[in-house]
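The material for today's practical consists of a large collection of protein records. An example says more than a description, so a record of this kind follows:
***
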Amino acid sequence: MPKPLIGISTYHEESARWGAWQQPAALVPLNYPEYFRRAGALTVLLPPDEPDAAVETVERLDAVVIAGGPDVRPQRYGAQPHPRSGPHNDARDLWEIALIEAALASNTPLLAICRGMQLLNVVLGGTLIQHLPDVVGHGEHSGSPGAMAAHVVEPIPGTLFGSLGVEAYEVPTFHHQAVDRLGNGLVVCARARDGIVEAVEAPNEKFVLGVQWHPEAGRDTRVADALVAAARRPHLVPAQRPETLHAAAVADTSSPVA
């Protein structure tokens, strides 16, 4: 059986250095493709592109991964920026929104990691907590520069994530934002012990899972195994799909509201 092809969105870095060169680059930590290759997939990186290229891109893939990264611009969910919000990258926001929309419309398996889960929630009309310490009173989710934090997540029985055989376990994490109001069609499938949403899924879809932590930075492969298994199954485009895209998410915010 051919290995499924998984596309992974990338970071846009204005100044990346290698050898004698320092140039703009599209990149992602190596542990992302390695994580899915260990589960039996082929991987391809998806640098930021024009949003109208997303449908044709996703048509060539068996699954899509939206990688972690910087904060989603708050105007995309109708909020004013918190002093700790940012940096923001509008080109990346719009490209990954288009990838999410294309994956949902084509019933292509979708895994959204950290920022990716937050963006998935926003695309479906949800909102975000912009700075977790304001809500939970601690910084245990965010670690320190260059080092992941670790905390326990607790799966919710009866959900896709709960069915992976995962019990409460420690995960690598690095984030200061999280899901607030849940997006349309999503359900919570795991929480941290302080109540913060740690995973969401869309139970009526083939495979739509968002995790707030970084599974690619840990040893547990069950999330990758589940995505690869879903990617191996044929997917049928639904004959009719309700409109779920949140209009504010795709609005041009290159000149943000003050």
Summary: The two ends are 53 Å apart (CA to CA). The first helix runs from residue 31 to 38.
